[in-house]
Amino acid sequence: MPPALFPTPTFLPDPRRILACVGSLALAAVLGGCISMAPPDTRPPAPVRASWEPDAAAQPAAASAAALDWRDYFADPTLRELIAQALDNNRDLRIAAARVAQAYAAYGIQRADQFPSFAAVAGDTRQRVPGDLSFTGRPLITSQYQVGLALSPWELDFWGRVRSLKDAALDSYLASEASQRAVGQGLITQVAQTYLALRELDERIMLARRTIDSRAESLRIFRRREQVGSASRLELTEVTTLWQQARALAAQLEQERAAQAHALELLVGRPVDMAPATGLIGDAELMRELEPGLPSALLENRPDIIAAEYQLRAANANIGAARAAFFPQITLTGSLATASADLSGLFRGGSLAWNFAPGITLPIFQGGRLRANLALTEAQRAEAVAQYERAIQGAFRDVADALSARRWLAEQVDILQATQAAQAERARLAKLRYDHGAAAFLEVLDAERDLLAVEQQAVQSRRALLASRVSLYAALGGGGTAIDAARPAQADAPPP
Questions:
Q1: DSSP label at 155?
Q2: Which spans in 138-232 are helix H?
Q3: HSE (CB half, 13 Å, CA atoms) of 358?
Q4: At residue 193, what are phi and psi to the nearest 5 degrees?
Q5: What is the pLDDT of residue 27?
Q6: pLDDT tens digit string along 271-286?
Q7: CA 117 → CA 22, 62, 106, 154, 335, distances in Å?
Q8: How many angstroms separate the Cα of 181 from the Cα of each of 108, 337, 477?
Q9: Separation of alpha carbons 483 and 180, rounded Å
Q10: pLDDT in tens, 134-175
Q11: 3-state DSSP call for residue 149?
């Protein structure tokens, strides 16, 4: 009779005792897994002031950015449609979503190490034993059949190493999810800023073309005057120069608008037909007013800060795993099967075969590998702390810059509007003085050139003021939940 793959012992212990032993070890592993050697998860103190500016408390109440959906903040229907298309089609956002799915899968792989892994096994082995190796002195052909259940090597997590690795993978997944929200928030900001740049260029082109038409008419008049001798050749040349300068400005602005339109198509992720706007840029029709709140609110509202905090927690968990590696590692492996030399005898009485092999590994000498690994994780945590603090400082600067820009750009807009009115009056009076012979045409030339420059600068300042309000919305965490509905499909949600 050929030997079975799993020799049947002459004394079989009570299966209930085996199950009780395995259950006790599993319970001890679960209880031991509750032990964590990771440093405590505490937020470093925020390295920023308690308020944005001295008169922050005196600011008028308005909507909170974090609680205001981008559809409610941006009132322009064209802009809202562009943002919606960008959130659906932008490739950078798709890349971020794929990275979230990858991180979730990696977390699932790491989480599976906490549980025992069983596999159904079946085998059929035939072999020939030469006569000089056989105990009978004759050649033998043996057969072995088995069907059973095998337990892969499973670590009893007494010191929390496996759990710490799982926690690190979970925090990395949550960090990637927060980073995806940050990408979505940045995308909303970029689309809005590019749209405002297009509107600015449309208005500047409109002003340039209006100036071209006005100067073309002046050129026609001066040509007629030069023909009848009432204007000099020099004056005609100066009028021609003014007309050509306006044409050159319009061509430059058209080229800039084409580049902005191409950038908008890249952000939206599909072709966009943006016809030139005919109206002026207005505040009320584009977005709402915001209340900056307190700097501490950024810790809950800014997705980039949330991502940095999860990365810090992952670094803490990795330290716990590195510390647990210094302690003994206990593993279980085994199998429960039925085996026989004949296929027909697989499920007969007495064919039960089992194997139970606990093991323990105690690190003694590894050339300093474990200490170096612990030093590495501690250095990575120090880097994560610095990155977390830098994210807070960067967020504080973004808000402070947006608030100061909103204040001082509003003052610049008022000044430039008054300057534009004064320059328009100056150009009108200079033209009257020239027509009555009280001034040289050079005075008219300077006045019209300055008027065009101020008109262009006024449009730029209004767009910059609106852009600062978009930046403030993003800096305060607005739009950070725009892609919550677009998360990758998940079999189950991770535990808290």
A1: E
A2: 161-228
A3: 10
A4: -65, -40
A5: 53
A6: 888 878 776 666 556 7
A7: 14, 56, 17, 7, 11
A8: 21, 51, 10
A9: 8
A10: 777 788 887 777 888 888 888 888 888 999 999 999 999 999
A11: strand
How many angstroms separate the CA atoms of 231 and 257, rounded?
38
Is the domain 1-34+118-156+329-362 a CATH 2.20.200.10 member?
yes
pLDDT digits (tens, 9 = 90+) for 228-275: 888 788 888 888 988 999 999 999 999 999 999 999 999 999 988 887
| In this structure, CATH architecture of domain 38-114+159-327+368-486 | Up-down Bundle (1.20)
Cα gap 167→38, rounded to integer Å: 10
User: Which of 296, 295, 293, 287 shows the shortest CA–CA distance to 479?
Assistant: 287
Provide the Cα torsion 91, 94, 100, 103; round to 10°.
-70
Q: Where are the beta strands (DSSP E) in 435-482?
A: none
For the record, the structure tokens of 425 come out as 């009056």
Contact 182, 373 (CB under 8 A): no
Q: Could you give the residue range(s) of every CATH 2.20.200.10 domain in the chain? A: 1-34+118-156+329-362
CA-nearest of 446, 432, 442 to 232 is 442
Amino acid identity, residue 456?
Q
Residue intervals in the chain for CATH 1.20.1600.10: 38-114+159-327+368-486
pLDDT at 280: 65
73 near 473, Cβ under 8 Å?
A: yes
CB 314 within 8 A of CB 179: no
Token pair 């109440």 is found at: 61
Query: H/E element holding 156?
Result: strand 140-156
Q: Which of 30-39, 211-220, 260-269 has the lowest mean pLDDT?
A: 30-39
Better-predicted residue by pLDDT, 273 or 495: 273
Residue range 400-421, pLDDT digits in tens: 898 899 889 999 999 999 999 9
Q: Strands 140-156 and 329-340: what pairing?
A: antiparallel
Q: Which two tokens stand for residue 136?
A: 């009978």
Estimate to the nearest angstrom the gap between the alpha carbon of 286 and the chain centroid.
26
Q: Which residues contact 289 (CB under 8 A, 6 or more apart)?
A: 60, 62, 63
As a whole number of angstroms, the distance between CA 119 and CA 358 comes to 18
Average pLDDT of span 199-204: 92
